């Protein structure tokens, strides 16, 4: 008789350590985001959450003895099996807390790795997650092996005489990382070929970026009719999704890219691991920064996104539109004020991707932004340059054409990118 798997009973803790940063984010908001992360991982039943205020972190176990005992009693009473700690936890702290509480402990990095592992869909995404997880695991072998003093003799490739268990495990992980890197290099080469092919495509690339859960996938679905996973959940999208789409209302044809959501304090292992999945942003003709304007920390989230774009070295010359999404969740007075503020800014569009309000104006704004960088040019093509002529017409760049005795005289309107691609034909 089959039994459905029972969800793991989990508890979320956010350590509010005063000595770390006087300008740290609001601990209650941070806890809310941590609970959102927990909900993003299938198989967890989050039974409760709380902020633990600490004057400083205890090096051996993060919390003091009294707090550890108080929490142990709570977890025992609630039959908790997993504690998620929203912040960095050293391997020694993790081992000591697990021993004290007799349950599994996962820190913020470990939780995000679990989510990424669950969501990664492309071959590259899966390999990047495996590498990030192994790098993280390599630093935590002390937790898995409490008998490090025990020596063992090696057999064949397993290890030489006197090699400790932890050294053998580290070497196994390093070997696996080398294998994964080789596989990844092949996948990245294939992706770069696809990207080069897209660069020659007739359509500009519009990249949607934003803090996780800002509504990018819902907006993407509204514009494309695609059924991308769009849930009220952190990291609902992890691999870039790209669609060729003709924007509604007679707008231009574009390639629309929905990217992984950004998040504050993203573990360094994952910033490196997922840099490749954000490469579409580097080659974009237009970046649409989607913000959840109803979120209490929308300004902090905006700063986090802009910092990551800066770290990615996205060219400042790339045009940007800031989309104030979820205005349907804002009360009437605040909404009126937001709409007034947005109307005063050329680069801002307020809308609701759920109700559709403001979507037509966004399409117009995207069209205008993509044509703003174009210029008129006059070309003359010989009769034997039919391929070049066809290329111009396929892209809708020809405004006027006349046949001459030696070929065709064309008036075109194109971008610098169009001109560069034309020169390569």
Outline the secondary-structure elements.
Elements: E1 8-17, H1 27-39, E2 44-54, H2 65-77, E3 82-85, H3 91-101, E4 104-107, H4 108-119, H5 123-138, H6 141-144, E5 151-152, E6 163-164, H7 165-199, E7 205-210, H8 216-224, E8 241-246, E9 253-258, H9 268-273, H10 279-282, E10 286-292, H11 298-311, E11 320-325, H12 332-343, E12 348-350, H13 359-372, E13 375-382, H14 386-394, E14 398-403, E15 407-414, H15 416-423
Parallel strand pairs: 1-2, 1-3, 3-4, 7-9, 7-10, 10-11, 11-12
Antiparallel strand pairs: 5-6, 8-9, 13-15, 14-15
Helix pairs in contact: 4-5, 5-7
Q: Please indicate the count of domains.
A: 4
Fraction of residues in H or I helices:
40-55%
Q: What is the CATH class of the largest domain?
A: Alpha Beta
Indicate the mean pLDDT.
Answer: 80
Anisotropy-based shape: elongated
Uncertain regions spanning at least 5 consecutive residues: 143-162
Number of strands: 15
SS content category: alpha/beta
Order of helices and strands: EHEHEHEHHHEEHEHEEHHEHEHEHEHEEH
Annotated CATH homologous superfamily of the largest domain: P-loop containing nucleotide triphosphate hydrolases
Ends apart, CA distance between termini: 65 Å
CATH-scheme architecture of the largest domain: 3-Layer(aba) Sandwich
